[in-house]
Amino acid sequence: MSDDNGTPTPAAGPRPEPLRFFGTTWVDHGHGYPARRVGVAVGSLAAATAACLVLRFAYDGLRLADTGSFVNLLVVVMFAVCSALAFRHTWDSFSKRPDPDRQTSLRGLLTIGFVGSLLAYFFRALTEAPGEKLHREEYETAREQYEKRTSRRTGNPSKKRRRS
Q1: In 3D, which of 23, 29, 49 has the Cα closest to residue 122?
Q2: Alpha-carbon distance 52 to 79, whole Å?
Q3: How far is residue 95 from each of residues 47, 75, 116, 138, 163, measured CA to CA in Å?
Q4: Domain coordinates in residue numbering, the chain
């Protein structure tokens, strides 16, 4: 304890970055980690299914409005392409940090292709917490660098002789 009111002393060294829906449970896979993974997988699949139903209603509305087969085909292709691109972008963001400028420029495309992002979450949650591999690599690297820095510091610096 660091003080009289019971505040714990923070651990020395790097701290793991929390993941959405998982916090820092991905580090040791404790505190309900498997249940959270199942919940994320089921939730993202349910959301993707609901989104497909909403898109189906929108498509039926276009068909009822008799906008023509070209517009119907264009809407279907647009959602398919945007979903595929959003899936790939989301999947890649689990293994490397996305470029913030590119992320900003793709915001509209990713919004249209939200079904792809939801499916990427579903498939990644089957094997690990989405983003766990990237965060684990960064955390391990930071820990190794911290260990190297602290292992170089030996002895009591107050007892070192000063050069004159």
Answers
A1: 49
A2: 10
A3: 23, 31, 17, 11, 50
A4: 33-135
